Amino acid sequence: MRRPRGIPARMAEAAVPADTRLLAIAADQLKRFGPRHVTVVSIADAAGMTHANVYRYFASKAALIDAVAEQWLRRLEAIIAEIADAPDPADDKLERLLQAWARTHRELLEEDRNLFDVYCAATETSRPLIRRHRARMRQLIERVLDEGIVTTKFDPRDRERALAFISDAVYRFINPLTVRLDAEVPQYILGQRLAAMIRVILRALANGSV
Known about the structure:
By secondary structure, the chain is mainly alpha-helical. It has helices at 9-14, 18-33, 40-47, 51-54, 61-84, 90-111, 113-124, 128-150, 159-169, 171-174, 176-181, 187-207. α2 (18-33) packs across α3 (40-47), α5 (61-84) runs antiparallel to α6 (90-111) and α6 (90-111) packs antiparallel against α12.
C-alpha cells in the first residue's frame, strides 16, 4: 500500500497494528522460504521487534502460520459471500459461486505453493481453522440453496441431501488435497469437468432428483 506523501516510512509502519504487520511478514517469508524455514526470530527481525514480543500476539510459530492460512481462507469466504449476496437468480449464483471457489483454490496452488501446502496440512488434521472455515462456507451454500427453494429455482426432495450432493459433486475441485493431486492437469480440462458437474447439480436441484 502506498503511504500518503510526506509521511515517513517508520510513522506509516507504526500506524499499522503490530499483529497485521507480523501476518504480512510471515506470509511473505512463508511464500519465499516455506514453513520449515520460517522462524519467529526472522519474523521479529523483519518487524523490528524482539521475538519475545511476537509471542504477545501469537502463541507459537504454528499459530502464526495458521493465522496466515486463515487470513487467506477469510479472503476466499469474502469472494463467495459477495456472490451469495448478489441479486442474481439462485441457479446463476450457485454456478458462479462454485466456479469461483474452484478457481481461487487453483490460483493459490499456482501462486503460493507453500501456503497451499499449509492449507493441505491443516485440512488433513482438521485443525480448528478448517472446521470454522467449513462451517462458514456451508452457511453460504445454504443461503443460496434456500433462496433457490423459495424462488422455485430449486425443488430438492431433501434439503440436507441436496447440500451433501452439491459438496460431493464438486469435491475434486474444492478440496485442497484433491486440487493438489490435479496440479498437472491443464486448467481448461478441469474447467470443462467442473462445468459438466455444475450442469448435473443444477439439473438435479431443479427436477427434484435429490
